[in-house]
Amino acid sequence: MVHPANIQDRDGAKLVFKKVKGMFCRLALVWADGGYAGKLIGWVSTFFKCYVSLEIVRRCDDKKGFVVLPRRWVVERTFGWLGRYRRLSKDYEELTNSSETMAMIAMINLMLHRLKPG
Question: Who has the most CB within 10 Å: 40, 55, 83, 106?
């Protein structure tokens, strides 16, 4: 889901959860970074009636410099894949719906080429 930049990440996460509720029956665990900590964890457990849990992947404070966080690399890798598409490399779209559609088309293209190369 793409939303405007004037929406806080935690509020945008609520919009995403509201959109996917009931769509993915096997959804049980969602990983998020430290920016989503706080009241959102309790909101998710009450919204999904305890069958979906939100787990915050925290950075270790005793390590300095760049540290690969568990599961965080999956998100960064996906952003890297999407960055290869010229239409998504810059924000050319005027509407958030157009941006969301272009991201969906890029992911469909990516998955199709992974399922049937060539």
Answer: 40
